[in-house]
What does this fold into?
Amino acid sequence: MSGVTGLWKVKDLKNRIIFTLLMLTVYRIGVHVPTPGVDGAALQQVFANMKGTIFGWFNLFSGGALERFSIFALAVTPYISSSIIFQLLTVIWPYLHDLQKEGDHGRKKITQYTRYGTLLLALVQGYGIATGLEQIHNPTVVLVPGLAFRLLSMVTLATGTMFLMWVGEQISERGIGNGISLIIYAGIAARIPSGVGSALSLYRSGEIKFFTILLVLAIIVATFYIIIFFERGARRIPVQYAKRIVGRKVYGGQNTHLPLKVNTSGVIPPIFASSLIGFPATIAIFLPGALMQAVTQALAPGALLYDILFVGLIVFFAYFYTAVTFKTDDVAENLKKYGGFIPGIRPGAPTVEYIDFVLSRITLGGAIYMASICILPTLFSQFLKVPFQFGGTSVMILVGVALDTTAQIETFLLTRNYEGFMKHSRLKGRTA
It folds into this structure.
C-alpha cells in the first residue's frame, strides 16, 4: 500500500494530521485579527521601511502578525525565551536541577514555571511594543495613546501568546510533530508567496536582474541540499552484545551500532539564539537616546556584532541542548544492563568518556554547519546587493521541521505495517 494512501488508512494518524491542520488554521486566522487602537494602514507604511531590521526579523517569525499588530504579534517568542531561561536555570539552580530528576512530576513543575515566565515576558514585551508604537508620529500609528491603550495591548498580546503556547502543546500531544516548531514553520512558510511576489515585482521594475534571481535560487537550492545532507548524517559507533545463556536458550551475540547524529539538537539552537538576541534589541528600540539606537542597529540582522553573537550562541546552544537531551550516562548504563559494549572500550565510566568524546567532536561539526547555514545566505544577499534578504535560519527551520514531522508520520505508518510515507527513502528523526 502506498505511503500517501496509508495516511488515511490509519485512523489515529489521520485524526492527528487533521487536528494539526485545524490548529494551524486557527493560528493563521488569528494573525489577521488586529489589536484595537492601532491604525493598520499607517503601521503597514512604517513596516515597509523596516525591512532588514530586528522588527522585520520578528515580523518574519510571527508570520506577518507584528506588522498587523494582531493578537498574535508576539507569536511564541516569549515562550521560547522563557524556555531558554529555565533550561539554563536547571543547570545552575539546585532546586530545579533536583526537580528535573523527579521524572514526569518534576518536568510538569518546570513546564508550569515556564508558562508563568512566558506570561511575565509577554506582558513586558507587550507593554514595550505599545509604548514604542505611541512614539511613532510620522505617520501616527496609535489612534488614542495613553495608559488604557498600553494596558489593553499588554493583555491582548499576552493572551494571544498564551493561546499560541496552548495550541503548540495541543499539537504536540494530540497532533503530529512538535507544536511550537510547527507554529514557527507556518509563520515562515506563510511569508514565502509574498517574498516571491516581491522578487518578481523588483524584476519587472528593473531593480534586480534575471541572472541575480537565478543565482539567489541556486543558493537557496544548495542550502536545502546541504541542510538535508547534514540533518540525515550520523556517526555510527559499533556496539556488540555478549551472549547470555538463560536456561537452554542463548540470547544476544549480535552486532549493532549506536547512531550519534551530526545535529542532535535540531533547529533549537538557531531559534534560541535568535530569540535571545532579539529580546534586548526589541527593548532597545523603545528606549530613547543615541546609545539605544546604536544598540538597535548593532543587533539588527546582518550587522557584524549580530553575526558574531549569533554564531557564538548557536555553538553554545548546540552543546547545551545536546547535553540536556542526550544523557551519555543513561546510554552507557543501558548498554551495560543489556550486555552491550563498544569494542575496545570497557563498560561503565570508560564508555561514558568515549561517547562524550565522540559526541563533543560531532556537535562541534554540527554547530559549525548550523552557524554557516544561518549566516552565509544573509552575507550572500548583501554581497549580491539584492533589495531583500533570504535567511538561512528560516530555510533551516523549514527543512528541519518538515523532516521531523515526516519522520513522525513515517513512524506511525511503519508501526502499523504500512509502507513508509517516503516510499524509497527512510527518514531518520532527530531530537528536537
Observations:
- The beta strands are 234-241, 244-246, 249-251, 255-261, 340-341.
